Amino acid sequence: MNLPSQWTRMLILVCFVTVVSSPAQTFITLANFSGTNGIQPMYVTLAQGFDGNFYGTTSLKGGPQNGGMVFMMTPEGSLSVLHSFGSLDGYNPAAGMVLAADGSFYGATANGGGVPACGTLFNISPGGTFALLHSFDMTDGCNPYATLVQATDGNL
To answer: Where are the domains of the chain?
Structure first.
């Protein structure tokens, strides 16, 4: 019968000694979307601001105009509506926002913005100051469903 070599026994011993146990993971719900604070945040990812809070959008409801909203959530789960979309500033944001180097967020809505309601590009500050940047009119595209990306030259 062949016994393992001394090196093999040492390797097996090192493997046993270096095993790290994985702690159990706990899932905690931080916020629920009930309609008054928006619904369907499933199409987007959260962007973390320089202030440590998380920013995102819902594609429907939220606020008086019911066209989706921009929200801010603290790491503890406190949720605030920063902007409620209507028709002229766009509605149904269907992509995540991007945190730009200037500290504000940029995003797109899939609909609204005028005739023929092809969507918009917008900017919003962490404090909720909203600016409509562009309304699509089919000559320059329609219904954007992608998250913006900031290039190294600062353009989106």
So the answer is: 37-156
